[in-house]
Every structure is written in C-alpha cells, then in structure tokens.
Design a protein that fits this description.
Elements lengths: L1 H22 L4 H32 L11 E2 L12 E2 L7 H6 L2 H27 L12 E3 L4 E4 L6 H11 L13 H13 L14 E6 L2 H13 L5 H15 L10 H14 L17 H9 L11 H4 L9 E4 L3 H11 L21 H8 L4 H10 L1 H6 L11
Parallel strand pairs: 4-5, 5-6
Antiparallel strand pairs: 1-2, 3-4
Length: 402
C-alpha cells in the first residue's frame, strides 16, 4: 500500500513539474529542489522494496507457532500477479517428526494408555463405593468424517481445536465477524461446529478417537476467573456471577451499608456503558469481583458454568471410553498425537489461538490467587474437584497454602 502511494505521488509530482515548466518562467533553483524531492522519494521506494524482499525471506524461515493465516505477497511489475504462501506449507513441526518415529510413538501410546487405565481404575473405585457418577457428558461433539469424538473443555486449549476443526470442515468463519471480538467470535464458531456434529452422544467405535483435555483444576478455575470475570468486561459473565458476587460479598464501610443497593446499581451502569468509574464508590474499586468474592459465589452459592465445571460432571469420563486424554502440561505433543491417531494432517494446525486476555495463567499465578482464600473456601475447592484431582493425578492438597 505504501509503495503504491509513493508511486502515485511521484507521478503526480512529475506531471505538476512538467506543467510548471511549460507554463512558467524556468527557474533553476526551483527545478533543483523538485529534482531533489523526486530523488529522495525514489530512494525511499527502493529501500521499501529491499526491506519487503528481506522480510519475505525471513518469513519463510519462521518455525511453528505463527498463525497460518499470515500471507506473503510479491508484486510482479510485468504481470502484477500476487503470490500467496501459507506458513503451513513451508513449516515442519519437530514434535510431529518425532511422532513419526516408531519407538517414540510407542512410548507416547503407552503414556496415553496409562492415563486411560488410571481413569478406569478411579471409576471402578467410585462405583464400588456407591458414588453416583455422570452417565452422559454435558457437551460432546462427534465428527465421524474426521474420526473424532470430542468433549470441548473450556479453558483447556479448546480454541485450538475449534479453529483446526473449522479449517478441516471448511467452515466459513467470516460469518462470525471480526476475530478481535473474541467472545462473540468463539461463541459463533462453537455454534457453527455444532451443525457438523452428527450426534451429541459419544459413539464407541474402534476407528473413532474420543478425546478430552484436562488441566490442573485450580489453575483452570483461576484462568476462567481472570479471563471472564475479573475485569467485568464480559457482560455474560458479569450477569451470571460478577454482579451477584460483588453485591453480596463486597465489604463496605459501615456508614455506606444502607446505600449498598444504590451503589451497586451505579457500578452496574458504569460497566454496561463502559463509562469512567467513580473510585469513591466501593463497587468500582475494583470494578469486577475479587477472587475471594468470586469463589464465595461459586462455592457457597453454587453458581456453575461450563468454564469451571468439574471434568467428571462435564465430560463423564466414567461413561465415555476416552481413548486419548490430553494434558495441558504437554498440550502441543498430545494434540498432535490425537491428530496423528485420527489419520489427519498437521497442515492446518496452529497453537495458542485464544490465550487468556490477561495473560497466561501458570503455576505461580493460580497459587497467588488461591493464597488469598481462607481455609473454608480451600476445603470447598478441594471437595468440588477431589474426583478430578485423583482421576487425572493432580496435586490438590490445600496444606500447601499458608
């Protein structure tokens, strides 16, 4: 675009200079100035062309992790044609190459088999103790045309799979609008994928790869809080839990207690209008519920949501024969294992399509948030996710928090 504008300006300047020379008295100093400007613009254009070629060469050497939608264009002055090169056609993934090694693949398969056995062992234990377990997943997607069955666990890398499946199924994602409006786009894409799922009930077939993704339950709930609730910028979650958590659990100075409802309503108006908050209003500082307030609403008032539901309740691992349990800690390798086992291609795969808007929630981050909770809430979290922690081998011991 920049180069075209420079060329257009040079042509205009040449025409203007030609007109001045033909209609006005010739002035040497004026002509020298015009010539200098033209030379400068020519040098800028040459530099832009050089940097453009250099950038194209660098792009072709970039390794995986770059969005596959980035396109390299090359202008040809004679044909004015455009050459498009997708990263996926020139990038090789080191982990994918390792999975092509028979010995390495057998090691990974043994690891996945061990995970499945551990789940079945825990399910038998629960059954023997008379504990009722979920017999049907809350959400499940069958894609027989891709040999995949999937329980989409939110806040555990599900956006990678939504994007990948949309490409494989050739779904027109332009119908979902601007990808920068992440919440709207993700919801739309999720609904589009539902149209291609043949049956919400898991199908047990030898050639079908049923899989789900797990992440440390405490880390996942903190990730959901930070992304959906903390900043009060997603009205769906503010209406679901944010407003209630603030109204019921926000501590106010004693003299402001009679004004609780009015102050909360004023804060609501600021959030819905995206206006400037009055920091003298305790409900605006912070604008969203604290993790303590959120946890009380989530645990004491049992406000549920798919983004922090337990795996046992959401994906029903005791009822579904999951042949692949992907772990967030080895997400890239495990995802590629599922792709390879299903006989699909890596070409359309990309990672990290939907990171938490406030940044990655790692081990230190979730521990910081959990350290803000009292013993009662920690025990409730432990009880809610106890089965998940034991079934998928996560350390959920609350004595690690002071």
């Amino acid at each position: 675009w920049y180069q075209r504008r420079v060329r257009e300006f040079i042509r205009w300047l040449l025409n203007a200079t030609r007109g001045l020379v033909m209609t006005c008295t010739f002035n040497v100093s004026y002509f020298v100035k015009i010539t200098a400007v033209l030379l400068l613009l020519y040098l800028v254009t040459v530099l832009c062309n050089y940097r453009s070629r250099d950038t194209r060469l660098q792009i072709l050497t970039i390794q995986t992790g770059t969005d596959s939608d980035v396109i390299v264009t090359q202008d040809d002055k004679q044909s004015m044609s455009t050459v498009q090169i997708s990263f996926d056609t020139v990038v090789e993934d080191a982990e994918w190459e390792k999975l092509n090694n028979t010995s390495y693949m057998e090691t990974v398969e043994a690891e996945f088999s061990k995970r499945a056995d551990e789940v079945m062992r825990k399910c038998r234990e629960l059954s023997g103790a008379g504990v009722r377990v979920k017999t049907r997943p809350t959400q499940f997607r069958n894609f027989p045309q891709l040999r995949l069955g999937w329980c989409p666990v939110f806040k555990a890398g599900s956006s990678n799979w939504k994007d990948y499946l949309a490409k494989l199924l050739q779904i027109d994602t332009t119908k979902c609008g601007n990808i920068k409006r992440k919440g709207v786009f993700e919801t739309c894409l999720h609904n589009q994928l539902m149209k291609y799922s043949t049956n919400p009930v898991p199908v047990k077939e030898d050639n079908l790869v049923n899989f789900m993704t797990v992440r440390h339950p405490y880390e996942r709930v903190v990730s959901a809080y930070r992304d959906k609730v903390e900043r009060a910028d997603k009205l769906q979650f503010y209406n679901r839990i944010g407003r209630f958590a603030k109204l019921k659990y926000r501590k106010l100075p004693e003299h402001l207690e009679p004004e609780r409802e009015r102050l909360a309503a004023a804060s609501d108006r600021v959030i819905r209008s995206r206006g400037t908050p009055d920091l003298d209003n305790p409900f605006n500082n912070p604008l969203g519920p604290t993790f303590l307030e959120f946890s009380k609403a989530r645990l004491l008032d049992r406000i549920s949501d798919d983004h922090w539901a337990s795996y046992e309740k959401y994906c029903a691992p005791c009822a579904v024969n999951y042949s692949a349990i992907v772990r967030f800690e080895t997400l890239h390798r495990d995802n590629l294992y599922v792709v390879k086992t299903a006989g699909l291609e890596i070409r359309e795969w990309t990672d990290n399509k939907n990171p938490t808007s406030t940044g990655r929630t790692g081990d230190n981050t979730w521990r910081y948030y959990f350290s803000q909770l009292d013993r009662e809430l920690l025990e409730l979290y432990r009880d809610v996710y106890r089965v998940d922690c034991e079934m998928f081998n996560y350390d959920c011991d609350i004595t690690q928090f002071p």
